[in-house]
Write a structure and sequence with these properties.
alpha/beta, Nucleotidyltransferase, domain 5, 7 helices, 167 residues
């Protein structure tokens, strides 16, 4: 079982940055069997650049749960599964850091769809999620790019292609 994760954060550093949105698709290798998505109140201001890129504003997260309120549910979803993300170390380290603050220890095996794509699709012109998805026919509506749900769904579809290409 795979937990395909995408997060949006206040910044690119898991030590100073905070999660503002998370989406998780539980994927059995053929189909999505569960999904979870939420905005998260980071309790800090969202940088203007992040707001412009993601469309997530301070107003949008003001009424969202803080991470500690959703940590157990998130931990229970990813525990015991292969953690998958496009640029896995970014998402993994953010989630590991936030979960640790909430009293949970994330220590799951990881798979990076960027690295796997490089092996399976060596002829791809780009390994960015948007360009690779477009090249492979994975449709991501423009409004869902750089949002956790859209990017996690695209990564799940990409993982399905990667797994079927390896067989």
């Amino acid at each position: 079982m795979y937990a395909v994760v995408d997060i949006e954060a206040t910044g690119g550093n898991h030590i100073k940055g905070k999660i503002i949105e998370i989406a998780i698709y539980i994927f059995d290798g053929e189909k999505i069997v569960n999904e979870y998505s939420t905005l998260v109140n980071p309790e800090v201001k969202i940088d203007w650049y992040v707001a412009k890129l993601t469309g997530i504003t301070n107003k949008m997260v003001a009424g969202a749960p803080i991470f500690s309120e959703v940590a157990k549910q998130i931990y229970d979803l990813v525990k015991g599964k292969i953690f998958v993300a496009h640029d896995v170390d970014f998402d993994y380290m953010f989630l590991k850091t936030e979960l640790k603050k909430a009293g949970f220890d994330l220590n799951e095996p990881k798979v990076c769809t960027i690295k796997l794509s490089g092996k399976v699709f060596p002829e791809a012109t780009s390994y960015s999620l948007g360009k690779l998805s477009e090249e492979l026919g994975i449709h991501i509506p423009k409004e869902d790019r750089h949002r956790a749900g859209g990017d996690a769904l695209a990564t799940t579809k990409l993982l399905g292609l990667l797994l079927s290409s390896e067989n």
